[in-house]
Design a protein that fits this description.
The structure is a single chain. The chain has 87 residues and is mainly α. The protein has one domain. The protein is 83% helix and 0% strand. It is built from three helices and no strands. The radius of gyration is 21 Å and the shape is rod-shaped.
């Protein structure tokens, strides 16, 4: 599997990212099992998959933080409008 680019991840929706994370975690588990049984020799694949999961989790956190910031900004705008009307 090739390295995921952050630009590709930013274009995905939250649901797509969550689904992709689930799939990758299952693949990591299967690959780990194969390595322990000696069927697979390339341990770098697991490391790269874990890094891909971390990139996706970072993107999800960014989406969550952006939503929180937007909500706070909208809330403060409403407070200012109420204060202006009251004055």
């Amino acid at each position: 599997m090739k390295k995921l680019e952050l630009g590709e991840l930013k274009n995905k929706t939250k649901e797509e990212l969550v689904e992709k994370i689930k799939i990758l975690k299952e693949d990591i588990l299967k690959l780990s099992f194969d390595i322990r049984l000696g069927r697979e020799k390339n341990t770098a694949k697991i490391r790269n998959m874990k890094k891909d999961v971390a990139r996706m989790l970072m993107t999800l956190a960014g989406i969550k933080n952006a939503k929180i910031k937007k909500d706070i900004k909208d809330e403060s705008k409403k407070e200012v409008e109420v204060a202006v009307k009251a004055a």
